[in-house]
Amino acid sequence: MKPIQVGLLGIGTVGSGTFNVLKRNQEEIKRRAGRGIEITMVADLDTERAKAAVGGGVQVVSDARAVIANPDIDIVIELIGGYGIAKQLVMEAIAAGKHVVTANKALLAVHGTEIFEAAQQKGVMVAFEAAVAGGIPIIKALREGLTANSIQWIAGIINGTTNFILSEMRDKGLDFGTVLKEAQRLGYAEADPTFDIEGVDAAHKVTLMSAIAFGIPVQFSKAHVEGITKLAAQDIKYAEQLGYRIKLLGVTKRAKNGIELRVHPSLVPAKRLLANVEGAMNAVVVHGDAVGTTLYYGKGAGSEPTASAVIADLVDITRLHTADAAQRVPHLAFHPNAMNDHLDVLPMREVVTSYYLRMRVADEAGVLARVTGLLANAGISIDAVLQREADEVGGEGSTQTDLIILTHDTREGTVDDALAELQALPSVLAPIVRLRKEELS
Ligand SMILES: NC(=O)c1ccc[n+]([C@@H]2O[C@H](COP(=O)([O-])OP(=O)(O)OC[C@H]3O[C@@H](n4cnc5c(N)ncnc54)[C@H](O)[C@@H]3O)[C@@H](O)[C@H]2O)c1
Ligand SMILES: N[C@@H](CCO)C(=O)O
Ligand code: NA
């Protein structure tokens, strides 16, 4: 049988890794797929760099549409990124009857419904293992390996750039900007790194996992998104003193009244495996009702780790593309006509979790009682209190101190309202810092 012919759109970090790994392991991949898989045509705006990357024997063009128009191409890989031209090209490739592989989580989290619908109608596959947690086969695990389960929750470190920044800042005392530049140099960061540091990239990924886990449409616009740019060094330190590490988590959970979908810095108990995932590594914890808690760990970014997932999708398509479209693994795990239409993504005020509160307060008698009294009145139960010595916080003779409170599970809206009241107390001297805490049990 002649090899499956693949057209590659965009040969940057992930594209070049895909080309190299496919070439290096071609014999073994062929034995697995039952058929050869060859990248025969590449489009990149920088044709000189592209030619240097692929060598002779591969057609290189600057116009991606020439790849889509080529009737010999069976699968199109989109590795350009973004929602602009990438969206048009993916839609055109589907319309031309090509299967598509993409690592573009931004595109799928925002336009997934439209893209998957078009693919379904055309009977082609849109595969996206590389879009979530890079080389970790988490889409496969959720969609196939855990298919028996009612998934209860997922929590993951799914942005390598921010985990790298948090780890390097804590371990080496380096400043934010220096570490971000290093993450960009290593090819981890998005073209626009604000997507990484403001939590948007993690929210794209958790939105996709949420859809697959709970059978709901991809709804990025309903995700709560907070990054790490406002995180203060002293909170990392106080969290450690209380036995926690701070990680940027993507969380999605089946609650009584809907689905939680959120990204924010979270305190994680230091003894949990997730708390010890360092550098650009990713890890996702999935809790299913039958299997219990499972953990997936590996490289979530970088050239060849991401290529590993792109090529796994190529092999899947090669194996399955002759199968009846109705019998293939559905894009979002549930058959399109059997999605959950009664499960809404909850507004953040309805989310229930526990909290870390840091208050800069006047070091005077009765402050602790006033603060805890107000929390008790609001029905917020306290798990732990840490009060620093004034001298330690503000230097000798200081009249201010930090009061840190950990709460038990509370509805976010209740905490919002209590924080507004606390903030108005004369002895609370600065904006209160609120972080969320996930026990992951
Ligand atoms: N870098 C990673 O570790 C990583 C991991 C997972 C997913 N992703 C995703 O993979 C995709 C690609 O990321 P990357 O890091 O390889 O990006 P990159 O910037 O290194 O590569 C993009 C390539 O696309 C080319 N390009 C841009 N516009 C084009 C056009 N109109 N036609 C043809 N080529 C065009 C650029 O010249 C460049 O070579 C993105 O969606 C990204 O979010 C990246
Ligand atoms: N910018 C992303 C790349 C992988 O999706 C990250 O840092 O995790
Ligand atoms: Na993956």
From TrEMBL:
<comment type="pathway">
    <text>Amino-acid biosynthesis; L-threonine biosynthesis; L-threonine from L-aspartate: step 3/5.</text>
</comment>
<dbReference type="InterPro" id="IPR005106">
    <property type="entry name" value="Asp/hSer_DH_NAD-bd"/>
</dbReference>
<dbReference type="Pfam" id="PF01842">
    <property type="entry name" value="ACT"/>
</dbReference>
<dbReference type="InterPro" id="IPR036291">
    <property type="entry name" value="NAD(P)-bd_dom_sf"/>
</dbReference>
<keyword id="KW-0560">Oxidoreductase</keyword>
<feature type="domain" description="ACT">
    <location>
        <begin position="356"/>
        <end position="436"/>
    </location>
</feature>
<dbReference type="InterPro" id="IPR016204">
    <property type="entry name" value="HDH"/>
</dbReference>
<dbReference type="InterPro" id="IPR001342">
    <property type="entry name" value="HDH_cat"/>
</dbReference>
<dbReference type="Pfam" id="PF00742">
    <property type="entry name" value="Homoserine_dh"/>
</dbReference>
<keyword id="KW-0521">NADP</keyword>
<comment type="pathway">
    <text>Amino-acid biosynthesis; L-methionine biosynthesis via de novo pathway; L-homoserine from L-aspartate: step 3/3.</text>
</comment>
<keyword id="KW-0486">Methionine biosynthesis</keyword>
<keyword id="KW-0791">Threonine biosynthesis</keyword>
<dbReference type="InterPro" id="IPR019811">
    <property type="entry name" value="HDH_CS"/>
</dbReference>
<dbReference type="InterPro" id="IPR045865">
    <property type="entry name" value="ACT-like_dom_sf"/>
</dbReference>
<comment type="similarity">
    <text>Belongs to the homoserine dehydrogenase family.</text>
</comment>
<keyword id="KW-0028">Amino-acid biosynthesis</keyword>
<dbReference type="Pfam" id="PF03447">
    <property type="entry name" value="NAD_binding_3"/>
</dbReference>
<dbReference type="GO" id="GO:0004412">
    <property type="term" value="F:homoserine dehydrogenase activity"/>
</dbReference>
<dbReference type="InterPro" id="IPR002912">
    <property type="entry name" value="ACT_dom"/>
</dbReference>
<protein>
    <recommendedName>
        <fullName>Homoserine dehydrogenase</fullName>
        <ecNumber>1.1.1.3</ecNumber>
    </recommendedName>
</protein>
